[in-house]
Amino acid sequence: MVGVLWFWLSILPVVQAAKSNRCPARNDPHGIWDGSTHIADNYTLSCNAGFHVNVSWEPISYTIACPDSGEWEEDPLCVNIDDCASLRHECGAMGVCVDHVEGYRCICEKGYHLSTDSAGEKFCGGGPIGCKGHTCGAHGICVDLQSDVDSFDTGNTSSTRGFRCSCSDGYFDNGTDCTPVDCGRLTDQYGAWTGLTSLGEDYTLSCPGDKLISGFGNPLDIVTISCSKRGRWPARVPVCRNEWKEARDAAWNSARFWISVSCAVLCICGAALAAGLTMGLVSLSDFDMQLLMATQLSDCTSDVDRERLVADQAAAQKVQPLLKDHHFLLVTLLLLNSVANEALPIFLDQVVPSYLAVLLSVTCVLFFGEILPSAYFTGPSQLTIAASFAPLVHVLELLLSPVARPIAYVLDQMVGHDKHGPKYGRAELLALLKLHKPEPISAESPSSSPSSSPQSLRRPKSPDGSPNGDVELGRWESKLLLPPNSGSAPHAEPESQDLASVEIMLAQNCLQLGRMRVSQLRLDLHPVEAATTGGPTDSDPPSPSQSAMTQSHDRVTIGLDATVAEALTRLQQLPEGARAILHDADSRVKGSVSLEALLRAALVP
User: Rounded to 5 degrees, what are φ and ψ at 78?
Assistant: First the structure.
């Protein structure tokens, strides 16, 4: 019940003020409130002497306005001004400041007395050692000290003197007196400073005839400044300037910037060119160029292939001289690459900060100088691109030959030259053919087409059923190599240059002729008549003195253990229609066979 009563009593003035459209009147023991307490009217507090209002900027009067609620939102009061806080020395080291209304009091320690400096500030001094009549000059006062106090004032201090000089602004205690501060001497690139550098003295800059001082109104050749009380020169110190030279330097700096940018781009292009040509040219071999130059247009089966061959041979003709000296080409391109990569950060450093120059050089060389050029120069048009840059490479070899040639010579002696001659052996050629046809045709393959099966490639027989051993090779080849559904047009041209399965099989079998024995072939042998041949038969074997391979004008005697390549070579040396007389290890004649039949049996087993 008491609490409810207290609540209503506390808000009663507010309610009454709200009803009367004004705020409650206020009183302050150290000031006077004046004005109107009606809503939105001004109400001012004016403090007595020695007091100020308790807000941040410490005014002696403060005005508020009554809000619509009829209740004051601020509570300003007049408080005592702290006079001790505004003192410079706070009564000195041997005294304590006590604040009073409109003043202060210094309470000194025993043995010290109250003194007043030139500014009217009181302090405690006059100890057993101290000033003893010393005045510190016209711009300071002497303050007695009981001990050294580093934070008391600026300047030197000594425990033997027992005093400090409290100096005015712009002066400092040099140990004896208050001396003007010194801002220090200045230097100028073109002019000369003369005069004194201490407080209040004139310090003059004089410029030579073609130099002027700008930024101080009209251009001048002489400007005088003075040292400030803080011991510092003005923020803008005059400088002698040569505007013509500065304009020239500015133009040169601008030109140097663009020159550096251009050189950096040139270095990136050089690195890209060197990396691309290193991959595109060095990966080509002299043998590949010889192979391309040896290819005949008559071997191409379409106009598109012929046009491509002509273009490739023209490009190979430009590239082949560069590939003759492999190490010289390699060293030339690597020297260009290293020069471009090392020079790039130097030019970037003129454009961007050093750390950014390193970062850009790494990223630009990696992507634009290595990855992209290598991918482009080793693409589908590798040979054409390499040929287009061949003249430039010749120029680079000429320019870098004083350095590249000795290095290439050392590499030739240490590593050796490229071996010239046949690049592929029998095994590599067989593997190369297999790559063109992953599943080469075999005589036992059930999936072979009728045109390529052993039965369809057998030698045709004569009308009486006996094997016809006099079939011409050209006619047999034309029937064998005809593509499917070609009818009777033996000269029809294929649509592409891809190898047919039959061509791959025949090429593979040709590579085996040097290792295949005659005894391994399935031959349809003709009987040999002794009266006709004049040689040995099964009943009349040759004499032991006869060799395993003898030759007459229309026939040759070949042993079954001879290779097919040897037999074909001997038969090629005889006139057309000559036959081979085959005999076994015991020199017994087994029969005769023609060149065409022997070749057919070897190629189509």
Answer: -90, 125
**Same-domain check for residues 409 and 342:** yes
In the three-class reduction of DSSP (H, G, I as helix; E, B as strand; rest coil), residue 320 is classed as helix
Q: Is residue 588 part of a domain?
A: yes
Domains identified in the chain, total number: 6
The pLDDT of 358-381, averaged and rounded, is 82
E-state strands within 260-381: none
pTM of the model: 0.43
Same-domain check for residues 169 and 215: no
Give pLDDT tens digits for 274-294.
888 888 888 887 888 888 888
String of DSSP letters for 563-577: BHHHHHHHHHTSPTT
Q: Which domain holds residue 156?
A: 84-180
Strand boundaries in 153-248, DSSP class E: 163-167, 171-173, 178-180, 192-195, 203-206, 212-213, 222-225, 240-241
Task: Report how far apart, in Å, the C-alpha atoms of 339 and of each of 161, 268, 334 are.
Answer: 73, 11, 9
**Backbone CA torsion sign across 19, 22, 23, 29:** negative
3-state secondary structure string across 342-370: HHHHHHHCCCCCHHHHHHHHHHHHHHHHH
451 shares a domain with 390: no
Are 60 and 45 in contact by the 8 Å Cβ rule? The answer is: no
Calpha distance 472→484 (Å, rounded): 22
Residues 338-356: tens digit of each pLDDT: 888 888 888 888 888 888 8
Q: Do 390 and 265 share a domain, yes or no? A: yes
Yes or no: say if 541 and 588 are a contact pair by the CB < 8 Å rule.
yes
Which tokens go with 196?
A: 């004194």
CB atoms within 10 A of CB 533: 17
Does the residue 6 lie in any domain?
Answer: no
Q: Which two tokens stand for residue 280?
A: 């595109």
Q: Are strands 163-167 and 171-173 parallel, antiparallel or unpaired?
A: unpaired
Rounded CA separation 554/21 (Å): 150
Does 260 share its domain with 388?
A: yes
